[in-house]
Specification:
Blueprint: H1 46-55, H2 59-67, H3 83-103, H4 111-126, H5 133-142, H6 145-153, H7 159-173, H8 179-185, H9 191-239, H10 245-261, H11 276-286, H12 305-332, H13 342-354, H14 364-385, H15 393-405, H16 412-430, H17 447-487
């Protein structure tokens, strides 16, 4: 029978009920520096995960596991209504219909059933850890295929008894999130529906096992992955001697910007702003303001370009959201200050309206005009309920005008919020792993989203630093030495 979501084999969990698993998923991009791309991720198998753990032979998969804490394998599903899905459904229906017909013969024919039992045995054994000797012996003894074949030939095969053993063994090996699925199997008494349900549950258990493998190998993968990515990039440079041109320009531009911020184009003796760590942090922060349409992305971060783009869009949305909320509260003042639940209500309203702000069809002007109208309605109701004077038409117009003005990049409130978001992300790079930088004023309404963004941004940056620090140090020494020469 074709396996529906065979994610491969290897490993197991534990005999005594399992660590928690999650169903969220991310996928891994294609590997290789020789064709650096920011391509969409792909579904991976347990076999790939285990191979990655042994030798880090799939660089992109190892990279994905390291930088994405939420990385999970998910069941492969064909698109609804696709030709592939229809063919698969027809083939599976034909198989199960054939199995049912064989079992209803007199005497029953067990050819298909024995093949299924062999697949099930193979799957159960693949879940076992090296210390599961007792369970292995039990599976080998009960699902003894030569004995089963002999029983079938003599009309003494009890498929029902074997199925119940299988269900019990699955209950011992599955992750906690599958307990309900296993309990449902115990309620099925017809053989064919039960075997069909067993295969579906086994497919889910294989996905759980893959995710268990991910969580298990991550702590042991860091050093291997860093060294492997660095060596592969060095091989790429040997073939492409100019393979760091865009990275060098990225760092040069960062140094120039820092010197301009210091008020001088010449390098001073050893300004703190030009310390390598500071240059690195500001360089990464600039990736969240990148013009992806016109500026080539630095080679050393190209594999994560899509991630940096997504974070850039998130930061822009948080800036606009916090700007609108700051305008609302500064304009309305004491009338709404401190009212429980109001901030969250207003935030949710604005968030919904800005959810599609980076899609081609989105009109920021129209969205902010609608937000202004909604804010006036909700605030008018709120101040009236708490005994304050209702909003006058002039006050409403002022509020709507100030909200609409936040779309302009030079808007004072927007520039302030953008500066504070950037400052917080920079502080997250400068702080230690277990410290959270203080939240700048005006960002409390988006604190949860901003902190989550900062954690993902810092994790991605820190891993990139580990891999490429030797290349960055060499480039920076050259840039700063040239700057000193020019200043003499």
């Amino acid at each position: 029978m074709p396996k529906e979501a065979d994610q491969g084999e290897g490993g197991g969990y534990k005999e005594s009920k399992k660590e928690g698993m999650h169903d969220a998923s991310e996928e891994a991009p294609q590997d290789g520096f020789s064709s650096l791309t920011a391509s969409p991720p792909k579904l991976v198998s347990v076999a790939e995960l285990m191979e990655t753990a042994k030798g880090v032979t799939n660089m992109a998969l190892a990279h994905e596991i390291m930088v994405n804490q939420a990385f999970q394998v998910k069941p492969a599903e064909l698109p609804e209504g696709s030709v592939e899905r229809k063919v698969k459904e027809i083939m599976h229906k034909a198989f199960w219909d054939c199995l049912e017909a064989q079992l209803m013969e007199d005497p029953p024919s067990y050819g298909h059933a024995i093949k299924l039992l062999a697949e099930i045995k193979e799957s159960l054994l693949s879940f076992l850890m090296p210390g599961h000797g007792r369970l292995r012996s039990s599976i080998e003894e009960v699902l003894d295929l030569p004995l089963i074949q002999q029983q079938a030939e003599n009309g003494a095969l009890d498929i029902g008894r074997l199925s119940q053993f299988i269900v019990g063994m699955m209950g011992s090996l599955c992750a906690p999130c599958r307990d309900k699925d296993i309990n449902k199997l115990k309620e099925i008494h017809d053989i064919v529906p039960l075997l069909k349900a067993i295969f579906s549950a086994l497919d889910l258990m294989k996905v759980d096992m893959a995710n268990f493998a991910v969580s298990s190998i991550r702590p042991h993968l860091m050093q291997q992955s860093v060294e492997y990515e660095r060596s592969k990039f060095q091989e790429f440079l040997e073939k492409q001697p100019n393979g760091l041109d865009y990275t060098e320009k990225w760092l040069e531009d960062t140094v120039r910007c820092l010197r301009e911020m210091d008020g001088s184009s010449a390098a001073s003796s050893d300004p703190a702003s030009l310390l390598p760590l500071n240059v690195h942090n500001h360089a990464y922060l600039r990736l969240l303001r990148w013009d992806h349409a016109s500026d080539p992305f630095p080679e050393t971060v190209l594999m994560d370009q899509v991630r940096f783009q997504e974070m850039q869009l998130e930061a822009e949305q948080l800036v606009l959201l916090s700007s609108v909320l700051l305008v609302v509260y500064t304009t309305t003042g004491d009338a709404i200050s401190g009212l429980p639940g109001l901030m969250e209500t207003l935030k949710n309203t604005v968030s919904v309206m800005l959810a599609d702000m980076h899609t081609p069809s989105f009109s920021a002007q129209e969205a902010l005009a609608t937000i202004g109208e909604k804010m006036c309605v909700e605030l008018s109701q709120c101040v009236s309920q708490h005994g304050y004077s209702p909003f006058s038409p002039d006050r409403k117009n002022i509020l709507k005008g100030q909200i609409s003005a936040t779309i302009r990049p030079d808007n004072t409130v927007r520039k302030l919020m953008d500066s504070r978001v950037q400052s917080y992300l920079l502080a997250s790079l400068e702080s230690s792993q277990h410290q959270t930088p203080p939240l700048p004023g005006g960002l409390v309404p988006v604190s949860r989203e901003l902190k989550e963004l900062a954690v993902r941004f810092s994790r991605l940056v820190n891993f990139n630093k580990l891999v490429f620090s030797p290349f960055y140090q060499k480039i920076l020494r050259k840039i700063l030495t040239e700057g000193e020469s020019l200043s003499e």
